[in-house]
Amino acid sequence: MNKTNQSWGGRFNQPTDEFVKIFGASVFFDKILAPYDIQGSIAHATMLQEVGLLTEDEKSQIIDGLNTILTEIKKDKFDWSVDLEDVHMNIEARLVAMIGNAGKKLHTGRSRNDQVATDIRLYLREQLDEINDEIKRLQVALLNLAEQEASTILPGFTHLQAAQPVSFGHHMMAYFEMLSRDAERLIDCRKRLNSMPLGSAALAGTTYPIKRARTAELLGFERICNNSLDGVSDRDFAIEFLSAASIVMMHLSRFSEELILWSSAQFDFIELPDSFCTGSSIMPQKKNPDVPELVRGKTGRVYGNLTAMLTIMKSQPLAYNKDNQEDKEPLFDTVDTLKTCLRVFADMVPTIKAKRDNMYNSTKKGYTTATDLADYLVKKGLPFRDAHEVVGLSVAYGLKIQKDLSELNLKELQGFDARIENDVFDMLSLEGSLCARDHLGGTAPNQVKQAIKTARNNLK
Ligand code: ARG
Fold this sequence. Notes:
The protein is mainly alpha-helical.
């Protein structure tokens, strides 16, 4: 017998081509699954002993051996070998080298197919918890900034044209809301992935009297995959995660875009600290908002990873195919990217300095209280369409003489509609406009403060 590989070489006569070995190996990137692989193996061995497939002594040797291997890996003392293809066979081979025969029994009643499907679920479950902690940290930072700036006025835009005055705190709370839904999506994804494939074995289940419920209990899985073919082969949970991650990144990217615009000399609404910016090697005046730019840029790779995973899965017949090995890099890359982007945002948001005067003065440009004047006329009895027309004419007049509506005098305003009285100026001021939107979800500062209070309670 030509033993080309100690795990599966029995029926082979030729050794694997050297380059094919490297081409097919996943150990370069799947070694980060090692702690989860070991966790899964310890649970599996515990169950095997309980059903009589391992002796107490064999189980102890296996568990001690796996714990030693985990320590070696953590201390970077583990000798990873490409000859052993992946994380699973590297660990198993080391175990056998350490403890001999007992080690060879660990793989009883399982396959690398259900093993890897379990590992990535354990991995992602833990990562999801860390990601949600980072989202929460960012949300707290947003709440603090929103609280501080609840009465700060900046122009709200539609079509990137000045539309109506809004509270900067209200603007920050919009991102808080997006992140709340993002967290919900991830929690939802966690619920569905928390199902254990182990026991599916290669594809059809196993002939051994295993107790799947026990292994699931040991690993903290809420359920067991109902169908072995499905358990080993689907990666829909990863696709769900990548979709939810893409949405988080889309939100962070929109936020980034605003921070980039706002920190330009043209907007000049905020200042990011030097510690979050870089300079230019040629233009001495520059201070570049690298952090939000990078986050905006990294959104592309997260979207790409989602597309990659969907495409990897789309034509695979049941059950496991080697294609599935390609699931890991998009998944790991997305987890890392998401974690680092959330982390850097949670660190950066508390450092954002609102340039209140600039925001205020900018809001004065662009006739942002025109809607308020229309609403005022409606309250005086004019149908809204007619009021819209009247205000349109007064804006055209203001543009001609280069004055804001609030800078026109009463006589000028009355020239457009005789119903206009002195109280109109309460409406035309930015503060008046802001405070008038005084309902749940509106931008009036007291509503914003209420929203922050509610949000803080919900976050606990
Ligand atoms: N490295 C493999 C992967 O990541 C493990 C499963 C291999 N299974 C097999 N039948 N070749 O998918």
